[in-house]
Design a protein that fits this description.
Oligomer: single chain
Low-confidence stretches: none
Number of strands: 11
Shape: globular
Helix content: 10-25%
Mean pLDDT: 93
Radius of gyration: 16 Å
Distance between the termini: 17 Å
Length: about 190
């Protein structure tokens, strides 16, 4: 599926992102990275190494906690993307942002959506990324790979989203962000 970045920008701009109060949560940001390969839009994910102290082996978007030198959360998302994947901030065209999310692990996460040119020479930080996973956008829209489960955490029930892509399972916060992104760009 070919999706014009301008279409994505317009679709995201048509929804005012919900900004949640930070409360006592640590600020963090992620980038939903898009690129076109062979005329088909792709979404880039990373799999965290099994040696990481948190979220071992989980599939995620590039991103992380805001650092004091980051002027804003967009800078956080771009810095983390460059640190993890070697995609320079100057090469990313920001198309918009999504709603804020609260992580059950104590983070207030702001997701941004951006695209970068392809082919691109990634410089993968192997301490933070065990595998680079790219999935065609059209495949992510297949309802057969998606489901929601109700989970309890600290006495509250939460819907947890899951995408099964071959032997990879995208779930939790990353899947919730992905679901919102897909909903926003899908013409209704």
């Amino acid at each position: 599926m070919r999706l014009d970045p301008e279409q994505v920008r317009r679709a995201l701009a048509s929804h005012a992102p919900q900004r949640l109060p930070r409360e006592n949560l640590a600020p963090a940001a992620v980038l939903v990275p898009l690129f076109a390969r062979d005329g088909e839009e792709q979404v880039l994910f990373t799999r965290r190494p099994d040696t990481m102290p948190h979220h071992r082996g989980e599939i995620s978007f590039p991103g992380g906690r805001r650092q004091p030198e980051d002027p804003d959360l967009l800078a956080t998302a771009l810095r983390e993307t460059e640190e993890e994947m070697g995609i320079a901030a100057r090469d990313v065209r920001i198309l918009g942002r999504l709603d804020d999310f609260f992580s059950v692990h104590g983070y207030h996460v702001t997701p941004f959506v951006g695209c970068f040119p392809y082919p691109y020479t990634f410089r993968v930080n192997v301490r933070e990324v065990a595998e680079v996973i790219t999935v065609p956008l059209a495949r992510l829209r297949d309802p057969a790979i998606f489901h929601i489960e109700d989970w309890s955490h600290r006495g509250r029930d939460y819907p947890v989203h899951f995408y099964q892509i071959d032997h990879h399972q995208i779930w939790g916060l990353t899947a919730a962000i992905l679901t919102q992104f897909l909903d926003r760009i899908t013409a209704r």
